[in-house]
């Protein structure tokens, strides 16, 4: 199917697609719009391809459903991550009570120095996961490495950060 025909089919099924996206997103209009836009991007960028094994509409609806499921999963992972982050921050704040701003700046400075000590791939995966809010799978695609390699870089990065920061803590 060429690009012109693909766009025509998307336009033809847009209203029904939006209705389906609403259904997949528990009637949340904002989320449905985001899901539909992401699904369209997947299709137009060629990340989802129509193989002709079903009708176009069936295939399109499956892309929308899968995209909604991915977004829902990503949303829950973020919430879980934020819950974990909040818990860690609470623990940190209870440990840091009594520390001055200068001491806080020293901790931040040490963390940034530790990040710079990591190999490039480890820095990249941490940046994508923590600062760009990507999953390890997305980070592996962005880095153009296998998911196994991304996981390895991620685990090693966390381990190396711990070692470096522990060593810095022992020096002070």
- Which CATH class of the largest domain applies here? Mainly Alpha
Radius of gyration, Cα only, in angstroms?
22 Å
- Helical coverage, percent range: over 70%
Distance between the termini: 65 Å
Extract low-pLDDT stretches: none
Q: Write down the secondary-structure element order.
A: HHHHHHHH
Major beta sheet summary: none
Q: What number of domains? A: 2
Oligomeric state of the chains? single chain
**How large is the count of helical segments?**
8
Question: Could you say what the CATH architecture of the largest domain is?
Answer: Orthogonal Bundle
Shape: elongated
| CATH topology title of the largest domain | Arc Repressor Mutant, subunit A
Give a verbal description of the structure.
By secondary structure, the protein is mainly α. The protein folds into 2 domains: 3-71, Rna Polymerase Sigma Factor, Chain: A, CATH 1.10.1740; 99-171, Orthogonal Bundle (Arc Repressor Mutant, subunit A), CATH 1.10.10.10. It contains 8 helices and no strands. It has helices at residues 3-12, 14-24, 29-44, 56-96, 101-117, 120-131, 136-143, 147-171. The longest helix has 41 residues, at 56-96. The protein is elongated. The mean pLDDT is 81.
């Amino acid at each position: 199917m060429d690009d012109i025909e693909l766009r025509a089919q998307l336009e033809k099924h847009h209203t029904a697609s939006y209705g389906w996206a609403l259904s997949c997103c528990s009637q949340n209009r904002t989320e449905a719009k985001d899901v539909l836009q992401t699904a369209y991007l997947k299709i137009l960028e060629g990340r989802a391809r129509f193989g002709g094994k079903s009708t176009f509409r069936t295939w399109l609806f499956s892309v929308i459903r899968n995209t909604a499921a991915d977004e829902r999963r990503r949303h829950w992972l973020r919430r879980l991550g934020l819950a974990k982050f909040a818990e860690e921050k609470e623990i940190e704040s209870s440990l840091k009570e009594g520390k001055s701003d200068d001491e806080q700046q020293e901790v931040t400075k040490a963390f940034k120095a530790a990040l710079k000590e990591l190999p490039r791939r480890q820095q990249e995966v941490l940046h994508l996961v923590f600062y760009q809010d990507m999953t390890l799978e997305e980070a592996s695609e962005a880095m153009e490495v296998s998911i196994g390699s991304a996981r390895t870089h991620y685990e090693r990065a966390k381990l190396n950060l711990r070692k470096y920061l522990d060593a810095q803590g022992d020096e002070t």
